[in-house]
Specification:
- This protein is mainly alpha-helical.
- It has one domain (14-126).
- It has 5 helices and no strands.
- The protein has helices spanning 14-44, 53-74, 85-93, 100-113, 116-126.
- The protein is elongated and about 55 Å long.
Length: 127
């Protein structure tokens, strides 16, 4: 006798858990780094750097999205969420802000999204 789809326990692959934790850590680093950069530019230029503040706040916005996405990946029971290549690409682009950790997390995310086990997991939770 086969179990129905709703009664079956869905096993979360280790790569998805690793990706979720790395994304949350990257988000926290982006938020802390962006706030520190913004404060140092504004205070270092005696307030004139306020004009450049929107550019330095961009990593903190990405950090918020990373934390939300990572929390959805870690949730139990799993929430329907799709692989976010946009977040992974933006993580790679944070190298412009000298954030190497997010660069590595973004590359790992893109590699993990192409893994068959991870693809099957996302298809199962979204299907």
């Amino acid at each position: 006798m086969t179990a129905s789809k709703s009664s079956r326990i869905l096993e979360k692959p280790g790569k998805v858990t690793a990706l979720a934790i790395a994304t949350i850590v990257s988000g926290a680093i982006n938020i802390i780094g962006a706030c520190g950069l913004t404060v140092s530019i504004v205070l270092g230029t005696f307030g004139f750097g306020l004009i450049c503040a929107p550019l330095t706040i961009l990593p903190s916005v990405l950090g918020i999205f990373e934390i939300i996405y990572g929390a959805k990946l870690l949730s139990n029971p799993p929430q329907p969420v799709k692989p976010s290549q946009a977040i992974a690409i933006l993580e790679i682009l944070t190298v412009l802000f000298l954030n190497v950790i997010s660069l590595v997390v973004g590359i790992l995310a893109l590699v993990f999204y192409n893994d068959q086990e991870v693809k099957d997991y996302f298809a199962e939770i979204n299907g």
